[in-house]
Amino acid sequence: MNRLRYILIPLLFAQPVFADDDSALPELTTSQIMNFVGYGAIVVTLLVFIAALLVIVRAIKAMTKVMIGSEAYEKILADEAAAKVKPKKPKVNHLEKLLSLKPLSEEHTLIIAHDYDGIQELDNPTPRWFMVLFYGTIAFGVAYLLIYHVFGIGQLQYDEYKTEMAVAAKDRATYLSKSANLVDENTVKLTKDPTVITAGEAVFKSTCVACHGDHAEGKVGPNLTDDFWLHGNKVSDLFKTIKYGVPSKGMPTWEKQLTPKQISDVANFVKSIHGTNPANPKEPQGTKETDKDIAVGLKTAMLKKK
Predict the structure, then answer these.
(1) For residues 42 and 34, what is the distance between their CA atoms, to the nearest angstrom?
(2) How does 126-151 read in b/e, with b if 16+ C-beta sit within 10 Å?
(3) Cα–Cα distance measured from residue 226 to residue 144, given in angstroms and rounded to the nearest whole number
(4) Which string of b and e fits 30-69 if b means at least 16 CB within 10 Å?
(5) pLDDT tier, 299 (very low <50, low <70, confident <90, very high otherwise)
(6) Entry pTM
(7) Taking Cα atoms as reference points, which of 152, 291, 265, 128 lies closest to residue 200?
(8) What pLDDT, in 10s, does the model give residues 189-236?
(9) How far apart are CA 112 and CA 100, in angstroms?
(10) What DSSP string runs through 7-21?
């Protein structure tokens, strides 16, 4: 009956759908009526044929059951049901798969024929990941040998060290060139670096000799080599005097003409020529002062030793 129901449902949906309003139905001709009657007869015939087939099938099943016995028939049905059930796939152990190992239930197939004192050995294969790693290291070693020692494409450690040192020196020079002009009267440092002294001397001869003389012996400006100072003798005092000038006494400001590095170089040059006693020095001006920068440096060194 269930099969008959599944067959009838599509046939019912295949019939034309008419509206509830009879006035909307078109007038049928004699030929159309005959067609509908023919279609109905065909449908009825099909239904009768299907019903007859179902009856025959049930009759065959009943005869089979009688002929072979109910127990044998039930066994056949059970076998058919079991055949339709899909067997469950064994669970995959990913760790065993990675290590190329077989499950414990299959280890008996790996036992090596010989044994020693009752101890047997399994013929487990080398894990796949280990072999890939092993051959990978061989390939890496060959490639390294060719690149670094045969063709010389890559740099060895010592050559790489020299390259990095050259790059570091270049970066250091770039940094110093940018940071040198960040100095002011509060951060200027006393130095005896010959490069700084030479640079300061060049600036002094181009800008300061007109007032202080070729050897800083003093002309319009004071002598810069003796122990007498008008505005302090520390390198920071000299930096401040050069930078801002002393307009009341004719010392111009050099803040806009010289960079902070050039002012620092000149101040260190002046400190380096202290006590040189040039010829024809100008008479002392200002207050006699000891070299405070040197005294501070000695005191700091003594404190560090303690």
Answers:
(1) 12
(2) eeeeeeeeeeeeeeeeeeeeeeeeee
(3) 68
(4) eeeeeeeeeeeeeeeeeeeeeeeeeeeeeeeeeeeeeeee
(5) very low
(6) 0.43
(7) 265
(8) 899 999 999 999 999 999 999 999 999 999 889 999 998 999 888 999
(9) 17
(10) HHHHHHHHSPP--S-
